[in-house]
Amino acid sequence: MNLYYCCNNIEITFWEDKRNLITDQNAVGKILAVSSTIVTFFRELQLESTSATAVSINPPIPDLQQYINRFKEIGEEPTTFHSQPIITLAQMMQKNPDSITQNKGACNVTLADFDHDKPLAYVNCNNCNQRAHLHEKSKFVCLDHWDDYGVKCMYCVNTIIKDKDTTAKAIFFDEAMTDMLETTCEEMIMKRGYKDTKLIPDEIIALQGQHCQLQMTIKKDKSIAVNRAKNLFRIHQHLQKQRE
What we know:
With 244 residues, this protein is an alpha+beta fold.
């Protein structure tokens, strides 16, 4: 999600254990007070949830309604994936990355290829959010906290996507790749044994050539972040089974 403040926006990532703190139904158009996040950098400054992160919706602060009215004047963006009009990839690349109301879009594309030189996921310490390391090929540990707090696994899959006229690089973040696979990153790495995050699992390779509908954000460096995804091939399969 993005928060807008004084002509700037910053992205906040709520990881698996905190993803239900905010939904479209309870948060759109309201003021959020978010506490205990960690500042990270991925192409630009961003915030990530921690085990202590809490969210207060419309907190009891002075001039609350004034703030709500102020942000309404900025302009509303589509509130759900499904309501966004479908545009071409070329139109997506032309969007303004500095505008919270104009840096997002939805496209129908083909997942053409993967960047095999970059890891498919990050495994971080639940306590300090630092990168966890694979110990004796069996478990991930934090160098500062060992395995006292456990780890969280997050997809970050670098891909090449294309439509009829345009090809672009795009990063599928955790929720989007989970949408595509219907399998969480934790299950993929911990339960299915893909602990070498530099090797792309067969389940992900099988997505190559499939059609998908993506909710995306254009970044300042013109890279594309994929926030949510619909696997149109899998949806078609489900519909066929329902008709049988």
